[in-house]
Amino acid sequence: MTKTKETRKKPLQAPPPEFLSRKERLVAGKLLRDKVPRERHAAWKPSSKRRDPIDALEESNRDRKGIDEVHANSLVVPVALIPFVAVKELGCVLGRERVAALFFRNRVKRWEEVT
Predict the structure, then answer these.
(1) Distance from C-alpha of 61 to C-alpha of 70, rounded to nearest angstrom
(2) Splitting the chain (115 residues) into consecutive groups of 10 residues, what average pLDDT does each group show?
């Protein structure tokens, strides 16, 4: 016997998430803080059976090829951006024209000759 459209059950759907306002979240946090004050957080100690997180990462990476390159790239990219960010910040502080004159003196003269 085949099921018709009327007899099929609808799939279960999760209820929509409850969104709380900022004020409601602050009140909820204060209520939780009454139960567990911040001073008690310092008393928390990890279980003696808990694995070292670094060991867990190293174990998960043993079978992956090229993971060293991924880690190296994740370190190189931020370091490579430092000069760019520094020049941008100098531009905000000193002004773009002064930064251009400091770093690109010859190019600024050529640009003025072309324009």
Answers:
(1) 11
(2) 61 78 92 87 86 87 77 80 83 82 65 51
